[in-house]
Every structure is written in C-alpha cells, then in structure tokens.
C-alpha cells in the first residue's frame, strides 16, 4: 500500500511513501511550503512523514504553533499515539496550531493529538458513525481558529478548532446527515443528505432551515465552501460534483 506525493502543476510523482495497509485519509498543514504529511489507515495507524529532510528529526526548539514538530521518521513514517485508535482512521484535520491533529475514526470517536508529546489530549464519542469531519476554510478574521464540523447520523457537532474538544454547538435533525460544511462569515452551514439526497442550507445561530436543494441522485458524502464563502460544492455517490451559489451578487458564470 502506498501514498504518493504529486506536483499539482506538472502531474509528476514526487515521492512514494509506503504503508502496511489501505490508506483512508491524508492531510497537509495549511502552509505555503509544508514539510510533512500525516496519514490515517485501515490498520488504525496514524503516521507522520517528513517530506524534506529524509527522515531527520525536528528539534525541540521547533515546537511552536507555526510549524509542526516532526518526530524521528523512517521511510515508513512515524506512528503517533500507538494503539490509540480502535478502528480505521477515515478523516484527519490539521488544526490552526500545527502541532494539534484531529482524527475521526470508525470507532465513533473524534480525537485530538499533540505532536509534541505524541499523546491524546482530548476525545469525543459520537452516538452514530462519523461520516464527515472537516475544518472550515472561511474565517471572519485571520486570527479566527475556525470550526471543525462533524456529521454523525442525524447530528452535526461543531467544535472550536482553537480549543481541542470544546463544543460550540450540537444540532440534531429529523433525518440523517452524511456531510456538513460551515461558512463562518455568513453564519450559515450546509448539510448533505444520506438517504434523501438533498442539500440543505441552515442558519447557524437559529438552527433554522433556509433552503432545500435537489439535484443529486445518491448520498452526498462531501460538502465544502470556497475560501471566499460565495459558493459551495457537494460531492455525491451518484458520481457528480455540483457547485451552488451562496451569495446574492453575480459570481463567475452566475448572474
């Protein structure tokens, strides 16, 4: 089993990282020139790879929120929190503090890990299987840590990305939700349906449904806002990705 690092401009494979099992998730820190990548797999292992120094260790002086600490690694990576997951790791989120990692696991648990200590620092158990776990990319201010949005059954949980494990809001629905994304600028969030295949737009503060959009013909497993918050995308099991306008003014081809 492998993970490959690709050049997005040329399509060239830059690096091949080996793994003992199926890789289900991968994440880079949100930096201009990320030096490491972290992966989660079917074998319940969370691994970090140093992409620039051939497996050399980061020094303790690098332990700050602006750059992630990279433990001593080999070509097979370094495992974080050995034995800490009881199911395959389906989602990874790199927090605003680059030394904090959030994982969503098939054991119905969200976990927060500190790369400096390589220890679990917080966890949250959901009642239903987790189908989506994402960090918002629309921020009110540059210092805003963002919100981690989780979909699990008929519930969406919104966590403060700057405070591991701190719940901002928990919203229950009368239907299952397969995915969720939030726009912090507009105060709205979007959910993708499971069985009903509908896209719904909600007011975050009032927890009020504002729109119901139809067009997909299968469960909607992924939703995401554009960085400017003016459009959002939904990805479905029907094999399509749809773009929806979230603003009133003209945008791109929309008038």
Automatic annotation (TrEMBL):
Transmembrane annotation, as ranges: none
One MF annotation (Gene Ontology) recorded for this entry: RNA binding
Superkingdom of origin organism: Eukaryota
Gene Ontology BP annotations: spliceosomal snRNP assembly
PROSITE patterns tied to this protein: WD_REPEATS_2, WD_REPEATS_REGION
Compositional bias per record (Polar residues), positions renumbered to this chain: 59-75
Keyword terms: mRNA processing, mRNA splicing, Repeat, WD repeat
InterPro entries documented for this protein: WD40/YVTN_repeat-like_dom_sf, WD40_PAC1, WD40_repeat_dom_sf, WD40_rpt
Single GO cellular component term: SMN complex
Record's keyword annotation contains Repeat: yes
Residue ranges, annotated region (Disordered): 56-75
Per-repeat ranges for WD: 82-123, 213-245
Protein family membership: Belongs to the WD repeat STRAP family.
Name under which the protein is recorded: Serine-threonine kinase receptor-associated protein
Organism for this UniProt entry: Exophiala bonariae
């Amino acid at each position: 089993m492998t993970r490959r690092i690709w050049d997005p401009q040329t399509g060239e494979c830059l690096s091949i990282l080996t793994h003992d099992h199926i890789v289900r998730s991968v994440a880079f820190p949100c930096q201009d020139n990320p030096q490491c990548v972290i992966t989660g797999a079917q074998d319940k292992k969370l691994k970090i790879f140093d992409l620039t120094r051939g497996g050399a260790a980061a020094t303790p002086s690098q332990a700050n929120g602006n750059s992630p600490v990279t433990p001593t690694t080999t070509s097979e990576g370094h495992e974080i929190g050995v034995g800490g997951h009881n199911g395959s790791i389906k989602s990874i989120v790199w927090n605003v503090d680059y030394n904090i990692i959030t994982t969503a696991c098939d054991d119905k648990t969200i976990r927060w890990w500190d790369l400096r200590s390589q220890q679990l620092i917080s966890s949250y158990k959901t009642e239903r299987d987790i189908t989506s776990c994402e960090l918002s990319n629309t921020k009110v201010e540059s210092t805003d840590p963002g919100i981690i949005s989780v979909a699990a059954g008929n519930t969406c949980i919104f966590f403060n990305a700057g405070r591991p494990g701190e719940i901002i809001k928990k919203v229950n629905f009368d239907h299952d939700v397969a995915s969720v994304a939030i726009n912090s600028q507009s105060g709205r969030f979007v959910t993708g349906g499971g069985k009903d295949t509908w896209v719904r737009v909600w007011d975050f503060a009032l927890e009020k449904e504002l729109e119901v959009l139809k067009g997909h013909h299968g469960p909607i497993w992924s939703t995401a806002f554009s960085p400017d918050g003016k459009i959002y995308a939904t990805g479905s099991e029907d094999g399509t990705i749809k773009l929806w306008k979230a603003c009133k003014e003209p945008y791109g081809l929309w008038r």
